[in-house]
Amino acid sequence: MRFNLASFFKQIVKVTLLSGMMILTTVMPTSAEVVEASPQLEDKLYRQALYFYFTGNYGAALNQISLNRQRFNSQSSQSRLFEAGLQVTVGLHHQARQSLYHLQREQVGADDVASKVDNTQESKSNTSPAELTLIALLQLAEQQIEQGDNKTARATLSKISQVSNAYSDQYQILNQLAYWPELPVYSAVQPEDNVDEGLNKQSITVAYIELNQALLHMERAEFELAKPLLTKIKNTFWQPPSKTFWQLLFSPFSTDNEGGFSEKVNDEKNQQQAVNDYAQLLLAQLYVKQENYEAAYYELKNFPQDSPYSESALFIFAFSAQKIKQNTLSFKLFNLMKERFPYSNLGWQAALLLATQVAEQMSLEEGMTSYQNAERLYQQRLAELAYFQEDFLASDNLLSFAPGKKSVAMSKPETVVANELPMPFVSQKSYVTDSVWLQKALLDNELKADYQVLIELDSITAHLQTQQQKNLWLQDTLALNSTRKAKVFELQQQGHYRSIITELNAKKQQLAKIITKAEVEKLGYAFANQRQEQWLARIKQSKQVITFLDGNKNVEEYKKRVKRVEAVLNWQLQQELPERLWQHKKQLKEIEQLLVHAEQQRKRFVILADSASLLSDLAGRITTSATEIKTLLKSTAELRVMTSVKIADKVQQFVDKQRGILAQHLLTARHEMAAVLERMAKYDKRVERQLLPAKKHTKAQNINFNEPEQDNTQSNSSPDLNHKEGF
Amino acid sequence: MNMNVLSSPSVTRLNKALLIAVSMLILSLAVAVKSYAVTVDSSATNGKLSTALEDIKKQVLQLNRDLFILEEDLLFPASTQIAVFVSVDVGRFFKVDSVELKINNKDVAGFLYTERQRKSLEQGGIQRVYLGNLKVGKHQLTAIFTGLDGEGRTTQKAITHQFEKDDDVVMIELKVEDNESNYRANISVEQWIL
């Protein structure tokens, strides 16, 4: 009747743990199940993506959003807009357009409902969905313009139906850019100019609008309209626009949220200076177009040397100086121009202008030498261009053609840690080359974008190769798991856990019966401890001895003593019965729970063991991934070839264009040289005539009479060889 | 002499504005330079290529996600998965430098923050600092944060959390929160409800 609960307890725990251990070693892909996320959880999932975004890992942020949707069906408009922003960032424009289109449609519905509910709400919050969508569309259009795709940018801008004050400037600028050189077409209702709304009249965005406007006026020869605009821009201190988080999000590689304060201040200062310089330069150009060279000269007299527009400014300044007879200065400036910008069209033109000036103001011989120098310069450039063309077209990998020593790093992500995904799309580097011709060609935005595509494709290829390795590793891991699973099943087969659990259940029931019986019949001895059991055994033994001796000896005294001892023991056991009964019942309950748990685990194990599809499902997914990777690698390689061909075509066009310009300059230089030679011949003849004896004077006069008096092209500047201006 | 601005307008941002504007400002002098640009309708090719590139990017993204899920399913099934996250609310009174994690007194993870990562947390990001496996039952998580307090002194803050692992994923967020009343930061724990 008596039993040892402690050993029984240990046995059950052992079964449970072993069963649990086996469950652990078995693959259970239940995490793939989709869980519906509560708004609170959705926010947390969204913030995980935000973390990646803030650390500059845009690809991981986009992946996180995608994972959130896959795992938790997270579909909040905020996270979808964030996704659209990231899609713009990584260049998934088509997807971004689709996401924004859906958001806009939903938003129209939501706005209708909102307007019915609350008509008094006039101003929307800074982050209302409408505003966020507007930001997204504006930034998308900006990227399309930067890639030279103005047509698509127009289509994107036409989707905007309303613009608030805060984004009006940006909207106007983008329209100007997209429709250039035509007049912009504004599809959206723009806010009326309202000072109270806080529109910053000194914002640099206003400067851009006015600069574009002035350029448009200049294109249409409306100089008087352009002049006041440019004068105002060059004399105004412009303030940088403030950007919201969402605006920053949609601006890829924006450095606004990085870098220190001083870097930001410098950047703003440069931007301010660049706008002023550009306005000044355009104003000077306007004066030149009006042939007001003196005004142009004085406009550029104090132009900063380190301005990004110094090349153009220097040229106009030299040209104006030449026109207003500042010969010494113009000579020096054209020389400087020629030396400093040997590959620029302006530098080439400077060589010609310099030669013309020398021929006119110094001597014909020196002029001739100067033209010969210019001719040599063009021939040299043409030869270099031919060499570049040959070299470039022979290059197998365009990215390895004259690569720069260091590439420009853009938004650098933090080191990728375990379980984070790398970002394959946002190329962190821009292409830098040592080839001056290619540098010049890369000033074309489309070509630059194509090079960026090439870099991205290489980055994707490298990423796919890594994923291929990872897939192989997963395959190996799965194989290991399969082996381990087989071993575990074998162990399980040997363990006969079902029969063990059944046996333990039977024992438990038996114990339950004992406890019930002890409770009903108040059997205190059922719960006797070790000492009491020894006593009970001794009593039993004593009784047997007394029975054996009975009749032979007087055992009455013994009987009384045993009875007394037994009574005392019984009394003790009865006293302790309630407490012990409660303890045993409690332990029995625990055993019951453990057995239930063990049985559950055993059943789960059986289910897992029976469903062979779990591992085969994973194996199938791995195989699919391997196929996908192969296909993608193939597509990437094909696209790379196509992009390379496109780049080669564009570079070929660039070379042809440059060759044309150089050939034209060469031709002009040669024409001018011929003219100089002609003038030299005429001069020689004149000198000859002067040196002829008097008898031939009449004949010489006749000859001279047949020749034109002056070359029309040299009307006011017939070279006076005796007169040399000091430079 | 003909001085034309063969240009399009200035652009919105400085760097790009400079590049484009300089290239735009081509002044043709002395000779009327003919346009040698070959008029090729490249928009069709551009469209094709960009669509193809976008398509590849989209597929790579999907592949990334699928492989990530596959990896998680294989290595961290829900029945054993535990994930620990870190978030910072404002972060004025405690600048997080590093965090160490212990589960059942065993070191499981540690993370040293860069300035940018710390700022990312302070801007509202949530970082998953640990992903691992645990068997069903009761466990103890200990997190030790090291950082600088409001006065720039190196400080350590620790928290212990008891939790029970069942068949579902356990997600625990360690929150570093500013306490305005005593100008100190507190660490609190939130177990996400799935």
Molecular structure report:
The complex is a heterodimer of chains A (727) and B (194). With 727 residues, chain A is an all-alpha fold. Among the domains of chain A are: 5-24 and 496-610, no CATH class; 200-325, Serine Threonine Protein Phosphatase 5, Tetratricopeptide repeat; 327-399 and 434-493 and 623-690, no CATH class. Helix content of chain A is 72%, strand content 1%. In chain A, strands 1-2 form a two-stranded antiparallel ribbon. In chain A, helix 6 (129-146) runs antiparallel to helix 7 (150-158), helix 6 (129-146) packs parallel to helix 8 (165-179) and helix 9 (204-219) packs parallel to helix 12. The longest helix of chain A is centred in the last third of the chain and has 79 residues, at 613-691. The relative contact order of chain A is 0.08. Residues 12-32, 113-126, 194-199, 252-259, 408-421 and 700-727 of chain A have low confidence and may be disordered. Chain B folds into 2 domains: 44-75; 79-191, Immunoglobulin-like. Chain B is built from 3 helices and 8 strands, in the order ααβββαβββββ. In chain B, the strands form 2 sheets. A 4-stranded mixed β-sheet of chain B has the order 4-1-7-8, with no helix packed on it. Chain B has a 4-stranded antiparallel β-sheet with strand order 3-2-5-6, with no helix packed on it. In chain B, strand 2 and strand 3 form a beta hairpin. Chain B is flat, with a radius of gyration of 28 Å. Chain B starts with 13 loop residues before the first helix and ends with a strand.
One letter per element, helices H and strands E, the order of chain B comes to: HHEEEHEEEEE
**Shape descriptor of chain A:** elongated
Overall pLDDT metric of chain A: 77
Per CATH, the class of the largest domain in chain B reads: Mainly Beta
Report the order of strands and helices of chain A. Answer: HHHHHHHHHHHHHHHHHEEHHHHHHH
Low-pLDDT segments, ≥5 res of chain A: 12-32, 113-126, 194-199, 252-259, 408-421, 700-727
Oligomeric organization of the protein chains: heterodimer
How far the N terminus sits from the C terminus of chain B, by CA atoms, comes to: 75 Å
Q: Report the total helices of chain A.
A: 24
Strand percentage of chain B: 35-45%
CATH architecture classification name of the largest domain in chain B? Sandwich
Q: What Rg of chain B do the Cα atoms give?
A: 28 Å
Termini gap of chain A: 129 Å
Return the average pLDDT of chain B rounded to an integer. Answer: 77
Strand content of chain A: under 5%
Q: Which sheet architecture does the biggest sheet of chain B show?
A: 4 strands, mixed
Number of strands of chain A: 2
